[in-house]
Amino acid sequence: MPRMVFVVDRRVKLQLRKIRRSTRDKGLALRCQIVLLAAKGRGREQIAEGAGCSVSWVNRVLARFRDLGIAGLADRREDNGQLKLDEEFLARLYKLVDGCPRDYGYPRPTWTTELFCLVMEQETGVKVHRATMSRALNLIGARLGRPKPTVGCPWPKRRKNRCLSAINKVLQSLRPREVAVYLDEVDIHLNPKIGADWMNRGRQKLVPTPGQNVKRYIAGALDVRTQQITWVQSDRKNSLLVIDLLRELVKRYPQASKIHVVLDNFKIHDSKATRAAVAALDGKIVLHFLPPYCPDHNRIERAWRDLHDNVTRNHKCRTIEELMCEVVDYIRRRNRETRRQEYRAAA
Known about the structure:
The chain is an alpha/beta fold.
């Protein structure tokens, strides 16, 4: 393979070395180095290996230098025109992602990169390729995920906000001997919840299921201050499960003058049996009910999602007893780690 030999004037070599030393553009410095190596008689494959680039790119750099001299080593992308992915474009795209294609006259309910390109061209007049749109979505931190189903609260907005404000006021004004917890239940199924996982191309992981599902239920209470979870378990989800947890809270906090319990309006939370049990505890338990369909305001819901992600999703337990052992072990490990973090913060 013939070598591309350059006879470079000594003054030009000095200029190239000066540019290579002074420029902050790494690409320009590399192109100067390629020309200097070629002037020494190095082969293009050797130059490409030393520069960490392809042979074809070395050929293009040398050809441009041969035709245009030092000016041919400059980055010509500066002449591409106005930058398309400017701050205004990205800000409009950020708002667009939160919307829906149907808001802009398209029948499809979900976004694609093609639809993003079409709508952004209509909104801004800037036409971009799908690959450029993918880069723009990456720049604003957008991701392709699964939406969360939700049900709107039937209460008027003012009533809902008034209820949430009253609960927050109680939590923020706790006295030293008062305790506040978030209470909720979680269902544990022997049939595993199927979730996304990494797999090799052309292969799909298998999750065995027992066929006949078996359930267990855990009622838990998340301490607002310590983030510790107090829990009880049962094979039935009824008022007795809630009552057992309330009694467990009284045992867990014997010095507390009052235990504030924030919970939703599920029927077993407000049943006659539950209210009778609360009355029998001589006012030590105070229930604060959230507005309907407001799971995001019950902080223990996040702990239950982590439980599913770390234990029940795609699990391979053969019996419900084996699965419940893993669930209890996870809650205990979580409580230990939370205590460690509290000790570190206090130290």
